[in-house]
Amino acid sequence: AELENGIDTENPFLTAFRQYQNIDKLTRDILIELVDHIKIHEGGYISIVFRFADELRRIQEFIEVNTHNEAV
């Protein structure tokens, strides 16, 4: 089913999120499914780019808007 803003409840991100929402350790399989790439910068700074960053952002915006609308 598709929500108002075009988020599909069978979206691969939501499927992965549901599957891994209660993990107690990070495994290679989880890392491969959720992370696009990891960069190690000078000075030891690490940045992680997640595979589903755009979908996560859309879902967060949807929740924010709908939570705000319900509060008003």
Describe the structure in brief.
With 72 residues, this protein is an alpha+beta fold. The protein is built from three helices and two strands; from the N terminus they run ααββα.
Written description of the protein model:
It is built from three helices and two strands, in the order H-H-E-E-H. The protein starts with 11 loop residues before the first helix and ends with a helix. With 72 residues, it is α+β, with helices and mostly antiparallel strands. The mean pLDDT is 79. The radius of gyration is 15 Å and the shape is extended. It has helices at residues 12-20, 28-34, 53-71, and strands spanning 35-40, 46-50. The chain has a two-stranded antiparallel sheet with strand order 1-2. 49% of the residues lie in helices and 15% in strands.
Keywords, separated by commas or semicolons:
15% strand, two-stranded antiparallel sheet, 3 helices, 72 residues, alpha+beta
Could you outline the blueprint of secondary structure elements for this entry?
Blueprint: H1 12-20, H2 28-34, E1 35-40, E2 46-50, H3 53-71
Antiparallel strand pairs: 1-2
Q: Biggest sheet, in brief?
A: 2 strands, antiparallel
Uncertain regions: pLDDT < 50 for 5+ in a row?
Answer: none
Number of helices: 3
Straight-line distance between termini: 27 Å
Fraction of residues in H or I helices: 40-55%
Structural class: alpha+beta
Beta fraction: 15-25%
Number of discrete domains? 1
